[in-house]
Amino acid sequence: MSGTYLHIGGQYVVLRSSVAGIFDIDNTTSSRWTREMLASAEKNGEVINAAEDLPRSFVLCEEGGVRRVYLSQLSPAALQRR
Length: 82
Prior knowledge:
Layout: E1 5-9, E2 12-15, E3 19-24, H1 25-28, H2 32-43, E4 47-49, E5 57-63, E6 66-72, H3 76-81
Parallel strand pairs: 4-6
Antiparallel strand pairs: 1-2, 3-5, 5-6
Organism: Candidatus Scatomorpha intestinavium
Protein name: DUF370 domain-containing protein
InterPro entries: RemA-like
């Protein structure tokens, strides 16, 4: 990954330095911990749907103590190549 910002789909860009991880939705949502984390983020208004279609990945970001979970229609591999 290069540059300061990462375009995650739609009209959304995030600071690369705020990205804690990029995760495949199909592979990670089978984990109880991941499901609980996503449910908590949704309950707290921290989930932002950047997907114009079905989400294939989620990008976990934290900046200034604020957590955001962005849903993206792009695969983790595509996001990492950007």
